[in-house]
User: What shape does this take?
Amino acid sequence: MILGTTFTGCSLFSNKGTTVTGDQATTSTVSATPGLDATQSEVLGRLTGDWSIVSVNNKTLVVDEDQPYLIFEPEKGQFYASNGCNIINGDYSLLANGNIQFSNVISSRMACPVQWYHDAISQVLNDGVTVKIKSYNQGNESYLDIISTSGSKLMTLRRHNMEMINGKWLVTQIGDLHVSNPEVNLFFDIPELKVHGNTGCNYFNGEILIDTQVPSSISFSQMAVTLSMCPDSETEMAMLVALEETHTYRLQGSSLYFLNSQGKVVMKLHRE
Assistant: This one.
């Protein structure tokens, strides 16, 4: 495929966790505890996944880069995290009452510009700390509150459930333009954060970006398009502009909506 015209977007995607290695520290592998009861299994299911830390001690984080995150690995009984500066690794145990306890915690010791939440996050993810969790959904996303045993909210985490849009979608409307051509489509590869599709004439591909501070965030970058002459250039141009303007998404049943930064629907798609 010969790739031609490109357009890019600007956004922030949270970095994957980095295990502390080398001279910094090492972690031991711990097998998941067998024979979990119903309460523990339910808690384990709620913890699983990659979480962005969006508030600490009821204060919302406003971060330009290095978004703090927390990732649980239930198959190992381990977690790894970032407080926005240093990488934190450790083990966690599921207690009989459904609480979780952190242990064997280690951290890198990089010198960073001090932010108020660095120490607060590290204090929560510390040896011997026991916490309760509360999970809930809002829109397309899952939230996890980490609460002290005395009832104080310590952190709120958010997980983008982007896997729900994985696969092929047909474009049915772009702005006010109705689309009936089944060749106008998008295919999302969420695990690889890639997108490709067809404008009804030309093929395109690019990258999916997620702003960890924006609920239901999605945008596209590094989009490359083939350069065939198109009899329906209006649809192609409208589609490329809509993809460039996309800021968030909304999933309703078998329909997917892309919205711009003002909340206006710029594209509607239907699951094939």
